[in-house]
Each structure stands twice: as structure tokens, then as C-alpha cells.
């Protein structure tokens, strides 16, 4: 397996280098194709109308030269891949079209567009698209000028001004009408973006209306024509200011990388054969705790820089927030290539980062979502990538690909998840989300020592949904944080009510691996305890062994903080996971809960009985409480008492019940102690 992974990473490195070389080669080809096409088109125009060009005055050639020069610095509203481009040359080419007609203006515009495309390193297709738009616009404006016999002289009148505005309006309609037509053939999201061009249209109109001013000035004296560059500079500052504001809204302030909004815009442009790779740094919280947040921020900057260095220019590196990054990889042919890219990114991060002379190792769990349709939205891809990323964490792997055919990604599960998310966000009193409580009994005395909060959901159509199904659906997604927040709030509020009623009880709440990895659960618990005035020792959190194995260092930091707050930590389902005794020794645990699968069989199976007794002995040796789940009969209860188990819960004592029923049960309950007569262990099963 390791050898295969090394081969995959090596292949990923070669793929990254090959993709970068391919990008450079494509850029060179674009320059050659663009320049060659423009020269050929101008030669054809010259050959078709040699007399027209020979008769043109010096003002034409001066404006033509200025048009080509100013397009060496085109106006870009945001990054050149996702936003429109405004060519300042239209100020001159529009004036040329009004004065000397379509063909001379088209020849200049083709040359100017070529310079702009080469300056921005646009693909030949994009440059051709810009040229066609401007050719259509110039043709429309020249047609209007010819129909109304518009000629701008040194002293234009009001009629000339009105007709010029009409020609400029036709120019704008022709260019953006063609762009809208192309967008209509693309995606719905491009159509939506095409309607949001107010700044672009305003700047374009300003440039066009400078055209007749330039033309009138040229007839007064050519020496005044270059002064229009000052006006062009003012328009450039306006566009640049808007572009900087737009870029600021699309850029992460810490790393300088594009942010979530930029990713949404990029995905909204549509396209196929793309993959979204979501990277979550492992054990980043440990770096913050050990070296401080300043060093942690510097590490995030370096991680972003290293990712940007190894990702080709046609792909997008994004910081989503916290220690999460994303890479939108274009031109990805299926899951195998996406995996190679992911391992290439992981290999780039494997080299230690030098922080104040101290090498810091960084690894990342990577989830991959493939964009199968052009109209896939950003939220869906992010959710799928996040599900895959948590799958990777739970399996202890580094890379996972989202698979819609998996059981937990089925349409039925996704529909249930959507209903649960809606119920949690609306937080209505009748949303059906409720908590039942099952008593925990001290075996030696028979007294109630606490309860466990168990989640239930009365779905309006599906009926009662149990906790196992809810957790399976919610845990790989951000909905788990909403669900945990609701459960914690309701439990702490119930603890406050019991305490005020004079019957304080300790309640145990299950928390998921996702909650512990996020790290914010400690702040949430602290705020709730302070809000309701509940002592910390009345709340206990239960974690599973799988949560420990996914990221033990991050989990250790979180539960250590909870322990210092006075929150007891219980290790749930002990014996069914993969944790080692080393984890038990290092973690600040208060108890271990013996899984019901062993407890249910201990009265009839000698192996289960031996496992239960061994866990109890281990807990006793480590100073931990041992709690048995699934106690359903008196014989099991007595066997646990003989083995020295501290507490038990199960149907033998009480089923889970709502708070009102629990109050009634507590008022009627009388402690019962096991008899002193030891019971024989079960005979070996055949």
C-alpha cells in the first residue's frame, strides 16, 4: 500500500509538472495564433480597400497608434478569468468609425484587441470572442452614422450630440447583446452574471462619448489629441477602484488567496471535467496551542503559498476559512486523475515548514467532489467534498472521493439530511426534535447517579427516526454541528430546570468526531453553562474510540480543555473501536462505557463475560468508572455486580423516556441492591 501511494504521489508530481508545462505551451500557442490571425485579418482588409487606407489623414493614424498603445493596459474589473474586460481603445475606434467608416475602425480594433489579449495572456478563443464583440459593435455604430449621415466637425451642434449618443447606445447594445447571446448558449449562471454589468456599461459609455471629443479636437489640432490620455486615466482609476473593491470581496485577507465568494463565482461560470478538492489541515489546533496564533497565521499563509506554487494557473486555490483550503481543478478526466492531483498536493505539504527556526510538519485530509454537470452549484460541490474529507478522516486515509452510490449518500439519506437541516435552522417548537433520558444506576447502592440524553426525531412523514440513523446522516456534514448545538442547549436547559426543582441530575451527551475536530464545542459548552448557571460537574460528554483515531492530537486538546472546565469525559462503546491503551493513559477520562454487544451476551457467553470483566478490571486499575450499557435482565445485573462494575443502564431498570415521564419515574423509584449470592459464570458456548 505504501509503495502504491508513493507511486501515486510521484505520478501526481509528474502530472503537476506536465500540467504547468502544458499551460506555458498553450500560452505560447495562444500568442502565435492571436497575432497571426490579427495580422492576416488586417492584410485582408487592406487588400480589399487599399484606396480607403491610402486616403486616410494623419489624424486617423495618430488615433490608431494611440488605440493600440492604450490597449496595452486594458481595464479589468476583477480577475481576468471571471470578469469582463474593457478596452480603452474603443474611445478611438468609435471616433474613427464615426469619421471614416467601418473598415478603417475594424482594422485598428483588431490590432488593439490582439495587444490586449497578449498583454493579459488570454486564450486565443477568448481574444477572438472579444474581437467579434467589438467588430459587431463598431459595425452597428458605423451603420447608424451612415444612415443619419453623422459627421463630427470642429463645431458640432446639438443634433450631432444626440446622434452620437444614439450611435454609442447602439454600440453598447451590439456588443453586450452578442455577449448575452453567447452566454445564453452557456449556462444560466452566466446569464445571471451578464445582467450585473452596471459598472462595465458606465465605463464603456464614458469611453465611447470621449470619442467625438477626440475627433473634434483632432480637427482643431493633432497636438491636442494625446491630452485625451488624461481622461482615459480618470476612467481607468474609476474602473480600477471598482475592481479593487471587487477583488477585496473575493480575496482572503490573511493569505491573499481567493475566498469562498471567488470559488462560487468560478463554479457559477459552469463547465465540465472539473473537481473540487477540499483540504483540512490535521492537528492545526496543536500548532496554535503550542506556538501561538501568530505563528499559526503565518503557517496558514505558507500553506496557501505552497499550494499556489504547485497548482497550475488554470486552476484555483481558495482559502475557505480556518484551516480549510480548496482547489478547483479544471480539465480533470475522472476520479483517478483527481486522486493523483490530491496526492500531489499532499506531497507538497509533506515538506516541513520552518516557523522561527522550528520545523513544523503539516498533513491534510482531502475530500474530492467531481463536477459531473455544467450547472452544479458551489454549495453542492462543497458539501460533497466535505463528506468525502470526513470519510477520509474516519478511515484514517488521506484522500477520499465522494461517491453518490454509497449507502450514506443515497437520495433517501440526502432527503432526510435536508429535512433535518431545515428543522434545525427554523428551530420551531413543533419540529419534532426531542430528547429522551435513560437513568444510570449505581450497581452497589441502586441509586440513580445520572441519565443519558438520547436523541429522537418525530419526522412529519417518516415517523420516529432513531439516533443511529440521525448520526449516520448528519455526522459527515456541517449539519452535525447544528444538531450538537441543539442537543447541548436542550440538555443544559433541562439540567437547570431539574436543579431549580431540587432534583439535580448529571446528564451525559454524546458528541461526534466532527464536533471534537472543530474545537469550538468547548466554547459552546462554557457559554451554555454560564447562561443557565449550571455547574460543570452536572454535564458529561461521551466520545467514541473512532473519534480518537481520526485525529487523536486535536481531540486530546479539545477534551483536555473540557476536563479543565470540570466536564467529565466518558469513552463510549469501549471495545468496539480501535483505540489503544496508550490513548486511555493519556486522555483525561472519567469513565468507560462497556458496549452493549458484550453486555447482552455475558449471561450466556463466557467470552463476552470475560471481556466485560477485563474491561471492568482495566477501568478499576486506571481509576475510571465502568458503566455497562444494555442491561436487560436481573442475571446480567448480578453478574456485573459480582465483577465490580460501577453503574449500569438498560431496560432492566428503565427505558429512555421524556423529561416529564422521567420525573414521574424518579418519584416512584426505590433503590434495589443486588443480592450477596454470587452467580456462576456461563458455561462455554459450543
UniProtKB/TrEMBL annotation:
Record bears the keyword Transferase: no
Q: Which UniProt keywords apply?
A: Membrane, Transmembrane, Transmembrane helix
What Pfam families does the record point to? EAL, GGDEF
Q: The EAL domain covers which part of the protein? A: 413-670
- What organism is recorded for this protein? Paractinoplanes tereljensis
**CDD domains assigned to the protein according to its UniProt record, in alphabetical order:** EAL, GGDEF
Q: Which residues form a coiled coil?
A: none
> By what name is this protein known?
Diguanylate cyclase/phosphodiesterase
The membrane spanning regions, by residue number, are: 85-111, 131-150, 162-185, 205-232
Chain intervals for the UniProt region annotation (Disordered): 1-20
* UniProt superkingdom: Bacteria
**Domain GGDEF residues, every copy:** 272-404
